[in-house]
Specification:
It is a single chain. This protein has helices at 4-77, 85-114, 128-145. It is mainly α. It is rod-shaped and about 115 Å long.
Length: 146
């Protein structure tokens, strides 16, 4: 009967190791699924931000074109050449303001894209379970040797 105790302990250790490995594989699969979901969410978010950015840029360009056309038409109706003197300075100023607004929008766009990104250093937990299995195996061996 005394000879069965080490065999039972070894079998128990084997089952414990098997369970630890199974748990590790399940955790690894879960971590991979979560990482895939996070990547997909990041891709969708980046796509939404890009679409919003391009939509805002088109709207800004359309407003600028309309404002410039209206200003040029008013200046021309008043007998002033819209391409010379203060009229040219006015339209150039509008274009500079629009370019500055676009630059600000581009900076906000870059900040939105960089916000919320997961670090490449985040662990996915795939190694943890194997380390736990090794610890379990080591403690079981130590118990067998004692």
């Amino acid at each position: 009967m005394a000879q069965l105790a080490p065999i039972a302990t070894a079998i128990g250790a084997g089952v414990s190791i098997f369970n630890s490995v199974q748990q590790g594989q399940a955790q690894s699969a879960n971590a991979k699924a979560q990482a895939n979901a996070a990547r997909e969410q990041e891709r969708v978010r980046a796509e939404q931000v890009t679409l919003q950015q391009s939509s805002d840029a088109r709207a800004r360009e359309a407003r600028l074109a309309g404002t410039l056309a209206s200003t040029r038409a008013r200046l021309a109706a008043g007998g002033i050449s819209p391409d010379e003197g203060s009229a040219a300075a006015l339209t150039a100023g509008m274009e500079r303001d629009a370019a500055a607004a676009q630059a600000d929008s581009d900076q906000i766009f870059a900040a939105r894209l960089s916000a919320g990104r997961r670090s490449l250093l985040n662990t996915d937990g795939s190694l943890t379970s194997f380390l736990r299995a090794g610890t379990t195996f080591g403690s079981t061996l130590r118990n067998l040797l004692d």
